[in-house]
Fold each of these.
Amino acid sequence: MDQMNLPNGLPFMKMHGAGNDFVVIDSRGRAGAMVTPALAKALGDRNRGVGFDQLAEIRDGAAGADFTLDFWNSDGSRAGACGNATRCVSDYVMRGLGLDAVSLITARGGLSAVRTADGRVSVNMGAPQLDWQAVPVAQDVDLMHLPLLGDPVAVGMGNPHCVLFVDDAEAVDVAGLGPRYEHDPLFPQRTNVEFASLIGPDHLRMRVWERGTGITLACGSGACATAVAAHLRGLTGRRVTLDLDGGVLEIDWREDGVWMTGPVAHVFDGWLSPAFLAAHT
């Protein structure tokens, strides 16, 4: 998008990573952030707006980072992390800067991303949060065996996750069960919910309910949390392949953080009309 020749309105991009879809707004060079809760909610409406699983706003970098990234859910609430959007935006920024690696700042802190030899993008999502106050949950409980139906695991990845290991992820009523866990009082900030089954050595099938959004085809931070939980439960090693509804993600829990690798796609560019902006800002 040519930031020097903007007509009235606001440019945006539509991207997806393994079917996890995003609206991306590039606000670099502007005085401040453009996205408000009202605008995020309006844009997230798939009938009256654009529709997305998450919205990502790119802002100028700080503390030596190449850029800053803010995330929003489709209900207008803020999201602390979004791994697939981070990979997609990192790919866009790397192409613009002519680089194969970038650093960025999110609510999670400082992250880094690199382009792999096969064209995919890897992002270091940081160390998992395995303390009850950091996830967070409402009280000091065993995070590896939460006192909830299904014996789930709680993992923080800059946002809270509730991971349930089931016999067959395909058979789970994600739409019915997801909201129950999302809004359980044990999670004061609500939670993302993952249902995973072991389908081979270091290979999981995962389906997801994202807080503030609902069922999505993929969730990067959820894939990271699920891989961490699976290793801590003794189900897998530290390198795990996850089959999600929208594609395949590879997770590698290293000493420096949890790395996630997968495909990225820049689908189209568009413009939000002045009338739409005036009605929702």
Amino acid sequence: MTTNQSTAARYAVFGHPIAHSLSPRIHTAFAAQTGIALEYTAIDAPPAQFAAILDAFAAGGGRGGNVTLPLKEAAFALCAQVSERARIAGAVNTLVRNDGQWHGDNTDGAGLVRDLTGRQGLDLRGRRALLLGAGGAARGVAPALLDAGVLELVVVNRTPERADALVDALGQPGRAHSRYWDDLADQGDFELIVNATSAGRSGDAGFNAPFTLVNSRTLAVELNYGEVAIPFLAWARAAGCRDVVDGLGMLVEQAAEAFELWHGVRPDTGPVYEALRAQNARLVTAD
């Protein structure tokens, strides 16, 4: 059935850069699966122009959007209301237009946990976890990791003040702690290591961290997917991590959370994930 673009609701993903985004393909597949008419595009939004671009999108009938790097914290500031999980994160990845205002949510954490515990069949409970990074992506997943039952969450960022701010926002001083990047070798080992840094996006040749962070149970998770995920995934395999997962499943699951928020229908993520995995043979998932 051909979608009538003139009557389809308008949605978009905002980021900078954004040409690589799989979100249009994912939401188009969800729409076809559920019989919902929508127009979903990728919009490049340099940070300094994001507010104006978002205003123009709303004026043109935009009903909702997804937000990716580096705009998640800026999106939070532009929302009239935010969900509790977005408030704790201080970052928004999902926008809903309501009563002439933007309402923000953050589906990243829910998407990550659903992928790891559902699709990958992994139990996060009782794991000592290391979160590398404290930007929008890290802020989105940190509360969900605590809710999923990790024993302890250690946040490390090259700018220590950002790690401190994230830990303070989490409000669980007995379980969440910030540490210095230069002290990684002194932090012991972890059963879960999540890379939420932008390493790989900036053209870095590799990812470096002490192998002593890894033990026989370690699950290594990269929030990115595709070529930018390769440096961390290569490090995780070389370090002997038991399970290695990239961010493709999280991407599909967080998109499904957003889709349900917009349309009240939960899409079946399995076929969409499998199609994307097959089309992106270089992407890496759990062993």
Amino acid sequence: MSTEIELKLLIPPFRLNSFKQNLMKSEPCAHQHAFLGNTYYDTADKFFAQHQMGLRVRKENQQITLTLKTKGNTIGGLHIRPEYNLPQQNESPNLAQLVEDYDLEPGWKNLALQPIFATDFERETFLIRTALSADIATEIEVAIDQGKIIAGDKQAEICEVEFELKQGNIADLLNYVRALGLENGMRLSAISKAQRGYALAENYQPKVQNWLDKWRDFLNFAQGEGNFSQKLTALFQLEQNLIEETFALGQAYFAEDFLRTVERIGAFFNLYHFYTENGKLLENAFHQQGLNDTLKTDWLALVESSQQCLAECKQLITQHSERKNNAEVIAQLFDFLQSAFYLQRMLNLISLTYLETHFVANLEEKNG
């Protein structure tokens, strides 16, 4: 069993060439091309999907591997999850052998599997070795994937970049990505290829959540007991869920209805307004917990970006009120959420939520 740590970005095809040019400035020590054919298996009642796991058979060149990815944690576009790998002689999943080799749940041996969907894509990998930390060399594999998810007669495009941490610290991974020449059109993705595949196979239609109710729930939680780390993590999760749902629904959904546009911009407004209005209070929580200077710097950057986000929302609200043009305003919101500025904001949030959580945990452990 190994733990996969990777950061995923969605990238439009027209940005790939300039992204590669920026990547080459890191002077990769290895560069490879491969075609990956993947078939995902599950039971008729979607046992693995229900438990937030993915079971796939991958064929790469002449090598065939069975992989089980378990739930793990997802923080924005940062995925941290255990995975189990088993080399195979053919493309039929040998789940019984995987269970036996890794001492997994014995009952899984009897599961009746069937193919659910496939992900076929070209992968171009770059291996980056750099000393971002004083104590250990950092090794990051950057993979550019282009291809399709296929479920019956339905298809969806794959065009994404994965940064997998092979050696080093998560802080090094985040710092490396933040230092790249990130461009407009890119954004973090908390949705895996497997999740997208299941959604396509089942013709899943995203459901619109009541963000006023969700916001009230968060405010009640924020005013209650609990440490700063938990509250910040909940706030980040709220923002990431709002972004993912917005893109899943698509521009056309909002463009056809005035009230939908008003409510969506209002949901983002509430979020940025909270950061701005509570900046000093939350900063004091940092001081009380004795957090390090790097995290304080990230926090100040987040407050500043929130002020800019709030100003952008106010401008969109004014424009929408004056022109009554849903499509125009929603298009601008989508562009803003995919801007290099916003991507840097979300990377700062990952740094704050993940690294601050572990800093506090280590501090509490040290203090007994």
